[in-house]
Amino acid sequence: MGEDDVSVSLQSERLAEVVPDVLNAIHEVLERHHVTEEEWMAVLAFLTEVGRADEFILLSDVTRTSVLIDALSHTEDGGATASDVMGPMYTVEPPFRKKIYEEYEGMSPDDDVLFVRGRVTSTTGEPLPGAVIDVWQTGPAGGYDVWDERQPEGNFRGRIKAEEDGAYEFQTMLPKPYTVPTAGPVGRYLDAVGQHPWRPAHIHYKVTAPGHRTLVTQLFFPDDPYLDNDTIGAVKAALVRPVEKEDDHLTCDFDIALAPA
Ligand SMILES: [Fe+2]
Fold this sequence. Notes:
single chain; alpha+beta; 5-stranded mixed β-sheet; 5 helices; 27% helix; 22% strand; binds fe (ii) ion
């Protein structure tokens, strides 16, 4: 029996443990609400559409399921920077660069240049030179690069390598609150249940270093109108960091501690 066979059988054991409970819970709700054939077919049609639109991660996020799984997955990261939901907008291996954007039509002279800086250390305090900080965010107008034709592909995405003392810095623009996509089936769901689609401004992080657990998190900023009612419920107080004015730009300090693997 190869290694793959072992992982498959473990997975099957886990499925055998969890799936009956999932079905019992669903059946109990269907019974309690006397859900009709017509309603159940509408549910199946909706889920089919979610799959076709590639919106299952988004559905997981707006139903606060991703936040729950994140909390369940990080109970033993003592002293590490708080983790957060990854969301659906990550793309692998953006370029290494210290300025993560190019100017585009749609930016305004009032938009703020932001320098984010900090140190990456182990929870033991030792610096982690060479740690890779992978960031992605919305532009100051038009959201993510993939939603906005005016932005070059990969705009507001980049990787930065931590220096010898663990320090890192990158130049970006202060993001703004935005709405998750509302044109597809998840948008119709939000409308139907009366949930707004807004997220507070944030920068996504994925931080990796040898011998340490990978950290996926988000950085938030004070005074955002959606800090208390993020549609995906992902704001953690420990991840809200002050922004300071320095000459003609803003700065934000965000130190990162990774738990040993
Ligand atoms: Fe995001």
